[in-house]
Amino acid sequence: MTGKLVFTWIMGSFFLLAGVWIVRNLEMNIGVNEFQYLFALIIAFVLILVAGLCWISVAVATRHEVI
Question: pTM of the full predicted structure?
């Protein structure tokens, strides 16, 4: 594996960590309206999707590298 692939793989892990951290700490408290709650959920969802995209890209690139 090249350095770019390892970097992409690790960045995917950080994106997943950030998305899960947001979801885990998300609560409807005083001072948090529905829009802010939904916005945080959307950000977390996008971060998790980007993590999956990073990992799929690494898997495809590794598969093409082997052949």
Answer: 0.85
Exposure class string for 33-66: b at 16+ Cβ within 10 A, else e: eeeeeeebeeebeebbebbeebbeebeebeeeee
Q: Are 26 and 40 in contact (CB under 8 A)?
A: yes
Q: What is the mean pLDDT of each run of 10 residues along the chain (67 residues)?
A: 90 96 89 91 96 94 76
Distance of CA 33 to the CA centre of its chain: 24
* 43: containing domain: 3-66
Domain count, the chain: 1
Neighbours of 22 (CB within 10 A): 16
